[in-house]
Design a protein that fits this description.
The protein has 325 residues and is of the alpha/beta class. It folds into two domains: 3-121 and 294-324, Quinone Oxidoreductase, Chain A, domain 1 (Alpha-Beta Complex); 124-266, NAD(P)-binding Rossmann-like Domain (Rossmann fold), CATH 3.40.50.720. It has nine helices and 15 strands. The protein has helices spanning 42-49, 115-119, 122-135, 152-163, 175-182, 197-204, 251-255, 273-288, 305-313; strands spanning 3-7, 16-20, 30-40, 65-73, 85-89, 98-102, 106-108, 143-146, 167-172, 188-191, 210-215, 229-237, 260-262, 296-301, 320-324. Strands 3, 4, 5, 6, 7, 14 and 15 form a seven-stranded mixed β-sheet that branches. Strands 10-9-8-11-12-13 form a six-stranded parallel β-sheet, with helices on both faces. InterPro entries: ADH-like_C, ADH-like_N, ER, GroES-like_sf, NAD(P)-bd_dom_sf, QOR-like, Quin_OxRdtase/zeta-crystal_CS. Residues 11-323 form the Enoyl reductase (ER) domain. This is Quinone oxidoreductase.
Length: 325
């Protein structure tokens, strides 16, 4: 019998149960995958705790990205065959040994990219792609601030933004994480635990500030992030690892320089097959050429998903983490 992680009630890591789970057979337009690596992301914690309500209620199998091998293709799937290596990002269901999934959500993994790299890249790498290339199109000469620079998305973004010609400033919470970010494209890294990041950004830029701030931290970095922006700069809030940003008066954006603010999500940027393929092609291109490297620093057996969540929430992880079925 195939195994999966199931959540029957919201709560701490202990609610992640390793159980028997029959994936079923693929129907029309679907394939049966055998997962080889599953990505771990903070959004998994949000679903586990109940901060994000699952679309189909409980119980649920968490996880939004994985790589694997096609074992069986359903009717009308003529572009995939058993043995093909594929990867995906989806809402839920990746914490499993096997999974039935719609084929149009899959992308082929090219030669030169491993299954672990692909599993660690689909959510984080595609997030970096849309943030840097579409939410705000980073261009040569820009100065950007990226919070949580040593996190999974942060390490992708540092390398990619440097390639795009930007001056890249990051924040991190320990000397080791500061050094890790510096090794992955960041020109300047601020240890926010002993330095006020707003003051540091002003010093680094000579008062010029940033065209854009990318913020996945939320409560702890707001409204300081706004004070790091140039006139008509853009505040991009794409996560809330420290808690939700409290309600605020939109007038603050006018007071601080007619700022733009947006709360994007990946799935709005890869909603169509065409968008997904274009985004994945851009990501795998920079990975295949060695411009952006997927940094997999932690591996846990799927059965130990609870320990992986504990380490993630305690900020003991850096780069990407994968679960191995």
């Amino acid at each position: 019998m195939s195994k999966a992680i199931r959540i029957h009630a919201n709560g701490g890591p202990d609610v992640l149960k390793y159980e028997d789970a029959d994936p079923g057979r693929p129907g029309p337009g679907q394939v049966l995958l055998r997962h080889t690596a599953v990505g771990l992301n903070f959004i998994d914690v949000y679903y586990r705790t109940g901060l994000y309500p699952p679309p189909n209620g409980l119980p649920l199998t968490p996880g939004g990205e994985a790589a694997g091998v096609v074992e069986e293709a359903g009717e009308d799937v003529d572009w995939l065959k058993p043995g093909d290596r594929v990867a995906y990002v989806s809402q839920l269901g990746a914490y499993a040994e096997h999974r039935v999934i719609d084929a149009d959500r899959l992308v082929r993994i090219p030669d030169g990219v491993s299954d672990e790299q692909a599993a660690a890249s689909m959510l984080k790498g595609l997030t970096a792609e849309y943030l840097l290339r579409r939410t705000y199109a980073v261009k040569p000469g820009d100065t950007i601030l990226f919070h949580a620079a040593a996190g999974g998305v942060g390490l992708f973004a540092g390398q990619w933004a440097r390639h795009l010609g930007a001056t890249v400033i990051g924040t991190a919470g320990s000397p080791d994480k500061v050094e890790l970010a510096r090794q992955h494209g960041y020109d300047h890294v601020i240890n926010y635990r002993d330095t006020d990041f707003v003051t540091a950004v002003k010093e680094i830029t000579g008062g010029g500030l940033c065209e854009v701030v990318y913020d996945s931290v939320g409560k702890d970095t707001f409204p300081g992030s706004l004070d790091c922006l140039k006139r008509r700069g853009m505040f991009v809030s794409f996560g809330q690892s420290s808690g939700q940003i409290p309600p605020f008066n939109m007038g603050i954006l006018a007071q601080k320089g007619s700022l733009y603010a947006t709360r994007p999500s990946l799935f709005a940027y890869i909603a169509t097959r065409e968008e997904l393929e274009a985004a994945a092609a851009a990501l795998f291109d920079v990975m295949s050429r060695g411009i952006v490297k997927a940094v997999v620093n932690q591996r846990y057996p799927l059965a130990e998903a609870a320990r992986a969540h504990e380490d993630l929430e305690a900020r003991r992880t850096t780069g990407a983490t994968v679960l191995i079925p």
